C-alpha cells in the first residue's frame, strides 16, 4: 500500500503543478512524504482524488483534519455546507446513514461563559462537515502557528538543502520523453519571415528610422571660441535692444524711509486708480524685520509681463530730446545795451473820473491832451502833471489828436457823431493866434457843394472854451488822425458794409471827401503814411495800403489774426505794427512781404493800442492785462538786414477795471518817454 | 508723358513692414509656433514711423514686423524641427491608439530634439553681447528654480534652472563681482559687475508660489528654454576665464572621505555656497598683479586719477568682510546671506541640521557676528555681535562696515535704502542717505544735531522758494500801497503836509542783479518761437513737477519727524 500510495501521490502532485516550479514541487514532495506516514492508516483513494484540486498547504491541513475525525465521516464531499442549513442532518456517513447535527443550544451568554471559563476555548474549532467541536492538539496548534508564519509544516524539513537538478547535463539512460522533434523546428518560420520582411520594407522606404546615435557633444561648451566681431549680421544694425527693467527706488524697500509710505488718502486714491494708470504698481509697505516679509503675490505676473514686453511690444528708436532749456531761450542783446527806453513810472495824471480812451501829445512835447468817457477833454502839462484846462464836450470822447504841425495849435476831438477842432490856447501865443487866424481867414467858395459833413464855426461860449470848428458826421466817429503836414484829417466811422466809413477833411478849405466808393469789411483804424501819399486802412483782418494820388490799392497786408484793434506806422514808413484783440502784435516789413515779419504774443490779453517812437527805435503796446510792453525795434537802413525786435521792458501801473487795462499808449515826440491811459481814469508817464 | 502711374503703397515704408498675420501666413506657421519662433529668435514688432502709411491708409491698430526679419526667419532650420515634432506627436498618438507598443517605444527613442546653440551664437555674436543680456535670463532662471514640481513645467527644467543659478552664484562669489544688494518687498535684488557689464537680477523670497491662472506658462517655458541655454554657455565661458572647472566642483581638501562623496552630495555642497571651487590650473592665491595705468587717449590726468580712486575703492569693497566670521541663525535667509557674505570675503556657517556645508559650529569662539532675526536670543556669547540681517546688506551698499549699534536685536532698524537710486541735483535725498554719505567720507555721525541742522537748512531752502513765488505778490502789494497813498494825497489836500527826511534804502546789489537777470530771461522767453516755447514749457513743467514731488517728500518727512520728536525726547529723558 505504501508504494502504491506514494506513487499515486507523486502523480497527483506532478499533475497539479506546472512544470516550471520544480523547486517547489520538490519541497512539496518532502513534506508530503512525511505527512503520509501520519495519515497512512486511514487514507483511501477517494481522499487522494480530492487532493488534486487543492493547493498543497490546504491539502495537507485538510488531510490531517479528516484523519483525526475518523469515527464520524461525512461523505457529502466538497459542497457548501449551508445547503444543509434547514435540515436536521448534516450529511451521510460511510454507510449511507444520516449524520445528525450535534445538539447546539449555546446562546451568546453560554458562548461568553465558555470563553471565560474554558481554558481550551482558543484551541477549539468547529468542524463544518460534522458540526462538532474539536479541540486541537498541541502538535496541531504548533502546525497552524508555523503555517501562519509562512514556514513549512514539517519541523524537520530543511528548506536549504542542496538543489538537485532534475534535468542535468548528464545524459540519463532513460529519457524523460522519447518524442521525435517536430518538422517545424527544422524549417524557418513563415510568420516571422513576413514580419521581418515588413520591417525591412519599412526601413527601405524610410518609414522606420534607425535608432538615433547618441549625442557626443557636451551640453555646454565654449560657444564663443571663434568669436568674430566682423561677422555681425546686417540685421543687428536695425536691432533695437530691449530696455532693461527699471531699477527699484527707495519706496520698494521692505523697510523704506517713512516719507515713502503712502498716507491713507494716497492709498485710497491708489486703490481707485486703474492698474495701468498707477504710478507705482505696488503699495509701499514697512516691515519691522526681514522675517516678517511675505511673498510678493505678483512676482510671476511681473516676470510674465516682462516676457510679453520682450516679444510682443513694438519697439521704436526714439531720439530723446536732451535739450538744455536754457539753450532754447534765444540769445538777444541785453536790454541794458539798448537804452534809452522808459523803465519806471514817474508821473500820474489824475483828474478824469472815467476811463481815458485816448491821449495825444503836442508836437513840442510840452502838453498832453486826454479824452475820457466823462465827456471832458483835459490838457496837461507834461512835466508837472498839472491839469491846465478842462473842456467839456457833449459826449464821451472817443479820440483826440493833436495837430502834428508845430506851427498850428489845434486838437481834434471826436465824440458821438461830432468832431470838434479845439484851440487850447496853450504855449506860444503867436502860434495860437496864427491858428485862430487860419480858421477865421477861410472864405466861402463861390460854388457851394453839398458836403457829407456839416462844417460849422463855433461861437459864443464854445468859442471861449476853445471850440473853433464843429464837424457833424452822419455816424458816430471813432477815431481821428492827422496827416503829417497838419492840413488833412481822417475820421473813421465803423459801420459794416457801408460805403461811408472813412472820410478825409481838409481843414484849410473846409472840404470833405470820401476816398472810397466801397469799403470791404469793418474799418478799425486808419493812418497816413508819414512821408509819402499813402493811406493805411485796417479792417478786421487786413491792412490795405492805398496810394492817394494814383487812387489805387497798392498792398494788402494779411495780419494772420482775428481782429485788428490798432495800427502804427514806423516814421520811416516801411514798417507797420498791428495790435489785435487776440493778444498778438504783428510787425510787417512792407518791403519784405505782405505777411507779418514777426508775430509777438507777449501780452496775456487783447491789445488795445500800439505806438512807435518818432526818433528812437522803440515801440510800445498796451493791453487789457494792464501792462505796457516796450520793445526795441531797430530798422536798419541797409535793406538786406531785417529789423531787430527785442522786448526791453514790461511796464505795469494801471489797475484793471471792468476787464479793461491800458487803452491808449503814445510816445513823447522827443524824449524816450511813453504815456499810457487806462480804464482806471489815469494817464501815466513812464520815463 | 509716358510711363505708368505709380500706385500707392507699392514702395517705401509700406513695403518694409509686414503685419503679424501676414508674416504668419508667409511662414505657414501656427500662431503658437510663430510665437515660439519669435521668442527664440528674438524677433519683435517694430513701430513704424508713419503708421498710417504702413497700414495702407487704415488706422486700425496692428503690430508690424520688419519684412527683413520675417525673411530672415524663412531660412531658420528650427522651423523644420517644429514641424518634425508636430509630426512625431501625431504619429505617437496614432501608435497609442492602435496599441502598437513596440512602435511607441521606437518612436520615443527617436524623439526629435533641437538645440538652440546656433540661435544663441547668432543673437549674440560676441560674448559681451551675451553677458549684457543675461539680466532677464537670470531672473527667470531663479524664479523657475523656486517652482515646486507641480506640473507647471518639466522637472528637468526646474533642476537645470537651479543648477545654472547655483553655478552663476558660485562664479560671482569666486570672482567677487557683486556690487549692490537690495531687499525689496518683491524679492532680493542683486547687482554684479561682470566683465564691465552691470547685471541686475531678482530672486524671490523662499515661499511656495501661488500660481496665477492668467499667466501663460508656455510662453514662460519657451523663454526659459532659451535662457537656460544662454546662461549655460555664459557660465561655461565665465568659468573658463577664471580657470575654474566646469561643471563646477567643490575644491578637494585632503580629506579622504570626499573622494567617496557621491555626485549628489557634492552638488548640494556646491549649492550651499560655503566651499570654494576647484580650479583647472592650481592658482597662486592673491595673484592680483598691480596693473600699470596708462592714460587712455583723450583722457586727462584728472580723469585717470578719479578712475584709479574708483578702482581702489572697489578693491576695498571686495574685501569688506575679510577676516569676519559669521554665523547664521536658522530663521534668516541662509542662501542670500551666505552668498553676500562670501562675495565680500567673509566666512560663513550655520547650524549643521539646517543645511549641508556648515563649516564651523555655533560654539566657535572666533565668530565675530551672529546674524539673528528674532527679538531676543537665550544663550549669548560675549565676544560676538548679535545683529539683524539688514546690517550685512546695508554694509555692502554703503561700502563700509557700518556701526552695529543700530542693528542689535530688538532695536528698530534704520530704513533700508535702495542702492540703485542716484540722486541728481534737485532730487529729494532722504536724511539717512546724507548720513551714510557723511559716514563714507569718514565723518563721525552727530546724530540728532545734524538732523536738526539739516532740517533747518531744508526750511531755508523752502523759504527761498517761497520768496520767489511771493515776489510778484510783493510787487502787487507795493502797487496797492502806492495807490492808497496817492489816493490819500489826492483827497486830502487839507492834510498837513509833512516833510520827513528820507531814508536811504540799502540797495541789495546781488538782489537787483538777480532780478535784472530774471527779467531779462522773462523778456527773452517772450521772443521764443512757438514750437520752442512749447518744448520749453514742457521741460519746465516737468522740472517743476519734479521739484514739487521732492518738496512733498520733504514735507512728509518733516511732519513725520515732528510727530515722533516728543517720543524720542521722552525716551532720552528716561535714559
Task: Explain how this protein is built.
The complex is a heterodimer of chains A (687) and B (575). Chain A has 687 residues and is of the alpha+beta class. Chain A is built from 13 helices and 33 strands. In chain A, 20% of the residues lie in helices and 25% in strands. In chain A, the strands form nine sheets. A five-stranded antiparallel sheet of chain A has the order 10-11-12-14-13. In chain A, strands 5-33-32-31 form a four-stranded antiparallel sheet, with no helix packed on it. In chain A, strands 6-7-8-9 form a four-stranded antiparallel sheet, with no helix packed on it. With 575 residues, chain B is an alpha/beta fold. In chain B, 52% of the residues lie in helices and 7% in strands. Chain B has helices at residues 13-16, 20-27, 31-41, 51-54, 67-74, 77-97, 101-109, 117-123, 127-132, 134-145, 155-175, 217-241, 263-271, 301-318, 334-343, 390-398, 431-441, 447-491, 509-526, 530-574, and strands at 17-19, 64-66, 178-183, 187-194, 197-204, 325-328, 347-350, 369-371, 385-387. In chain B, strands 7-6-8-9 form a four-stranded parallel sheet, with helices on one face. A three-stranded antiparallel sheet of chain B has the order 3-4-5. A two-stranded antiparallel sheet of chain B has the order 1-2. In chain B, α3 (31-41) packs parallel to α12, α10 (134-145) crosses α11 (155-175) and α11 runs parallel beside α15 (334-343). The longest helix of chain B has 45 residues, at 447-491. The relative contact order of chain B is 0.05. The interface between A and B is large, with 92 and 108 residues.
Amino acid at each position: 500500500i505504501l508504494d502504491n500510495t506514494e506513487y499515486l501521490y507523486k502523480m497527483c502532485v506532478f499533475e497539479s503543478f506546472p512544470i516550471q516550479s520544480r523547486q517547489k514541487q520538490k519541497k512539496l514532495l518532502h513534506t508530503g512524504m512525511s505527512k503520509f506516514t501520519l495519515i497512512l492508516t486511514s487514507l483511501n483513494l477517494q481522499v487522494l482524488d480530492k487532493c488534486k484540486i487543492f493547493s498543497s498547504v490546504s491539502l495537507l491541513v485538510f488531510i490531517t483534519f479528516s484523519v483525526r475525525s475518523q469515527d464520524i465521516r461525512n461523505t457529502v464531499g466538497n459542497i457548501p455546507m449551508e445547503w444543509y442549513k434547514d435540515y436536521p442532518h448534516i450529511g451521510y456517513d460511510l454507510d449511507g446513514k444520516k449524520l445528525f447535527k450535534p445538539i447546539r443550544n449555546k446562546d451568546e451568554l453560554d458562548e461568553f461563559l465558555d470563553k471565560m471559563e474554558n481554558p481550551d476555548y482558543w484551541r477549539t474549532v468547529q468542524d463544518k462537515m460534522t458540526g462538532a467541536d474539536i479541540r486541537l492538539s498541541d502538535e496541531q496548534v504548533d502546525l497552524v502557528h508555523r503555517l501562519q508564519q509562512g514556514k513549512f509544516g514539517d519541523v524537520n524539513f530543511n528548506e536549504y538543502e542542496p538543489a538537485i537538478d532534475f534535468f542535468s547535463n548528464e545524459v540519463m539512460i532513460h529519457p524523460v520523453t522519447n518524442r521525435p522533434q517536430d518538422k517545424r523546428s527544422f524549417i524557418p518560420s513563415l510568420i516571422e519571415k513576413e514580419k521581418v520582411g515588413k520591417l525591412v520594407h519599412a526601413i527601405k522606404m524610410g518609414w522606420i528610422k534607425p535608432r538615433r546615435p547618441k549625442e557626443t557633444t557636451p551640453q555646454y561648451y565654449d560657444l564663443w571660441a571663434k568669436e568674430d566681431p566682423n561677422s555681425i549680421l546686417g540685421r543687428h544694425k536695425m536691432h533695437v535692444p530691449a530696455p532693461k527693467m527699471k531699477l527699484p527706488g527707495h519706496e520698494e524697500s521692505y523697510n523704506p524711509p517713512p516719507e515713502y509710505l503712502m498716507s491713507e488718502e494716497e492709498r485710497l486714491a491708489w486703490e481707485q486708480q486703474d492698474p495701468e494708470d498707477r504710478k507705482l504698481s505696488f503699495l509701499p509697505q514697512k516691515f519691522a524685520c526681514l522675517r516678517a516679509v511675505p511673498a510678493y503675490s505678483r512676482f510671476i505676473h511681473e516676470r510674465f509681463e516682462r516676457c510679453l514686453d520682450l516679444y510682443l511690444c513694438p519697439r521704436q528708436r526714439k531720439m530723446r530730446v536732451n535739450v538744455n532749456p536754457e539753450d532754447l531761450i534765444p540769445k538777444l542783446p541785453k536790454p541794458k545795451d539798448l537804452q534809452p527806453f522808459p523803465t519806471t513810472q514817474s508821473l500820474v495824471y489824475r483828474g478824469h473820473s472815467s476811463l481815458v480812451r485816448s491821449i495825444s501829445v503836442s508836437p513840442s512835447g510840452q502838453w498832453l491832451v486826454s479824452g475820457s468817457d466823462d465827456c471832458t477833454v483835459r490838457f496837461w502839462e507834461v512835466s508837472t502833471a498839472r491839469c491846465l484846462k478842462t473842456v467839456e464836450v457833449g459826449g464821451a470822447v472817443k479820440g483826440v489828436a493833436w495837430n502834428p504841425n508845430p506851427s498850428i495849435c489845434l486838437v481834434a476831438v471826436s465824440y458821438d457823431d461830432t468832431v470838434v477842432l479845439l484851440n487850447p490856447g496853450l504855449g506860444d501865443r503867436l502860434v495860437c493866434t496864427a491858428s485862430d487866424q487860419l480858421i477865421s481867414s477861410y472864405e466861402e467858395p463861390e460854388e457851394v457843394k453839398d458836403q457829407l459833413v456839416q462844417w460849422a464855426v463855433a461861437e459864443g461860449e464854445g468859442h471861449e472854451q476853445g471850440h473853433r470848428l464843429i464837424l457833424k458826421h452822419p455816424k458816430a466817429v471813432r477815431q481821428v488822425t492827422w496827416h503829417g503836414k497838419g492840413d488833412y484829417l481822417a475820421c473813421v466811422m465803423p459801420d459794416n458794409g457801408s460805403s461811408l466809413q472813412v472820410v478825409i477833411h481838409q481843414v484849410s478849405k473846409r472840404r470833405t471827401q470820401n476816398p472810397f466808393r466801397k469799403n470791404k469789411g469793418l474799418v478799425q483804424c486808419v493812418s497816413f503814411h508819414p512821408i509819402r501819399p499813402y493811406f493805411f486802412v485796417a479792417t478786421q483782418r487786413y491792412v490795405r495800403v492805398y496810394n492817394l494820388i494814383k487812387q489805387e490799392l497798392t498792398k494788402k497786408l494779411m495780419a494772420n489774426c482775428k481782429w485788428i484793434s490798432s495800427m502804427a506806422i514806423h516814421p520811416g514808413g516801411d514798417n507797420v505794427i498791428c495790435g489785435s484783440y487776440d493778444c498778438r502784435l504783428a510787425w510787417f516789413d512792407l518791403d519784405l512781404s505782405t505777411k507779418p515779419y514777426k508775430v509777438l504774443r507777449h501780452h496775456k490779453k487783447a491789445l488795445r493800442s500800439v505806438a512807435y517812437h518818432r526818433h528812437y527805435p522803440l515801440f510800445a503796446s498796451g493791453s487789457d492785462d494792464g501792462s505796457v510792453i516796450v520793445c526795441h525795434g531797430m530798422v536798419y537802413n541797409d535793406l538786406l538786414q531785417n529789423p531787430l525786435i527785442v522786448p526791453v521792458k514790461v511796464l505795469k501801473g494801471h489797475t484793471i477795471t471792468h476787464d479793461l487795462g491800458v487803452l491808449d499808449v503814445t510816445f513823447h515826440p522827443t524824449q524816450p518817454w511813453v504815456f499810457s491811459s487806462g480804464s482806471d481814469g489815469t494817464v501815466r508817464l513812464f520815463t | 508723358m509716358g510711363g505708368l502711374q505709380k500706385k500707392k503703397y507699392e514702395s517705401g515704408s509700406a513695403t518694409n513692414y509686414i503685419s503679424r498675420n501676414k508674416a504668419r501666413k508667409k511662414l505657414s506657421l501656427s500662431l503658437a509656433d510663430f510665437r515660439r519662433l519669435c521668442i527664440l529668435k528674438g524677433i519683435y514688432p517694430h513701430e513704424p514711423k508713419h503708421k498710417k502709411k504702413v497700414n495702407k491708409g487704415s488706422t486700425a491698430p496692428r503690430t508690424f514686423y520688419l519684412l527683413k526679419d520675417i525673411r530672415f526667419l524663412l531660412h531658420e532650420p528650427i522651423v523644420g524641427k517644429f514641424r518634425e515634432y508636430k509630426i512625431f506627436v501625431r504619429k505617437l498618438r496614432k501608435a497609442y491608439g492602435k496599441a502598437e507598443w513596440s512602435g511607441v517605444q521606437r518612436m520615443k527613442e527617436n524623439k526629435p530634439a533641437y538645440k538652440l546653440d546656433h540661435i544663441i551664437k547668432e543673437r549674440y555674436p560676441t560674448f559681451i553681447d551675451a553677458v549684457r543680456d543675461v539680466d532677464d535670463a537670470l531672473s527667470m532662471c531663479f524664479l523657475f528654480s523656486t517652482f515646486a514640481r507641480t506640473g507647471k513645467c518639466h522637472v528637468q527644467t526646474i533642476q537645470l534652472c537651479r543648477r545654472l543659478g547655483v553655478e552663476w552664484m558660485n562664479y560671482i562669489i569666486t570672482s567677487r563681482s557683486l556690487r549692490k544688494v537690495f531687499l525689496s518687498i518683491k524679492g532680493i535684488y542683486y547687482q554684479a559687475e561682470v566683465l564691465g557689464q552691470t547685471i541686475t537680477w531678482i530672486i524671490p523670497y523662499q515661499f511656495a508660489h501661488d500660481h496665477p491662472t492668467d499667466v501663460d506658462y508656455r510662453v514662460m517655458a519657451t523663454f526659459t528654454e532659451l535662457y537656460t541655454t544662454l546662461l549655460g554657455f555664459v557660465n561655461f565661458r565665465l568659468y573658463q576665464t577664471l580657470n575654474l572647472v566646469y561643471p563646477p566642483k567643490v575644491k578637494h581638501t585632503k580629506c579622504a572621505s570626499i573622494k567617496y562623496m557621491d555626485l549628489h552630495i557634492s552638488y548640494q555642497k556646491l549649492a550651499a555656497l560655503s566651499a570654494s571651487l576647484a580650479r583647472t590650473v592650481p592658482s597662486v592665491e592673491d595673484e592680483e598683479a598691480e596693473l600699470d595705468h596708462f592714460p587712455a587717449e583723450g583722457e586727462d590726468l584728472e580723469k585717470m586719477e578719479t578712475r584709479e580712486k574708483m578702482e581702489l575703492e572697489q578693491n576695498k569693497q571686495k574685501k569688506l568682510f575679510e577676516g569676519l566670521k559669521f554665523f547664521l541663525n536658522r530663521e534668516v535667509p541662509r542662501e542670500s546671506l551666505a552668498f553676500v557674505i562670501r562675495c565680500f570675503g567673509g566666512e560663513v556657517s550655520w547650524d549643521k541640521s539646517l543645511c549641508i556645508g556648515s563649516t564651523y559650529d555655533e560654539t566657535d569662539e572666533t565668530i565675530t557676528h551672529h546674524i539673528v532675526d528674532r527679538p531676543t536670543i537665550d544663550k549669548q556669547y560675549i565676544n560676538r555681535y548679535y545683529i539683524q540681517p539688514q546690517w550685512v546688506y546695508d554694509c555692502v551698499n554703503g561700502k563700509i562696515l557700518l556701526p552695529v549699534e543700530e542693528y542689535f536685536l530688538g532695536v528698530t532698524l534704520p530704513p533700508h535704502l535702495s542702492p540703485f537710486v542716484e540722486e541728481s541735483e534737485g532730487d529729494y535725498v532722504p536724511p539717512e542717505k546724507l548720513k551714510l554719505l557723511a559716514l563714507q567720507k569718514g565723518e563721525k555721525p552727530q546724530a540728532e544735531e545734524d538732523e536738526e541742522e539739516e532740517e533747518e537748512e531744508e526750511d531755508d531752502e523752502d523759504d527761498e522758494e517761497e520768496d520767489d513765488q511771493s515776489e510778484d505778490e510783493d510787487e502787487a502789494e507795493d502797487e496797492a500801497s502806492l495807490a492808497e497813498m496817492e489816493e490819500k494825497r489826492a483827497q486830502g489836500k487839507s492834510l498837513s503836509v509833512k516833510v520827513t527826511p528820507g531814508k536811504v534804502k540799502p540797495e541789495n546789489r546781488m538782489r537787483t542783479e538777480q532780478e535784472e537777470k530774471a527779467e531779462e530771461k522773462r523778456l527773452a522767453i517772450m521772443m521764443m518761437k512757438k514750437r520752442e516755447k512749447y518744448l520749453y514749457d514742457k521741460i519746465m513743467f516737468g522740472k517743476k513737477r519734479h521739484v514739487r514731488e521732492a518738496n512733498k517728500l520733504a514735507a512728509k518727512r518733516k511732519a513725520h519727524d515732528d510727530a515722533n520728536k516728543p517720543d524720542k525726547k521722552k525716551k532720552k529723558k528716561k535714559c
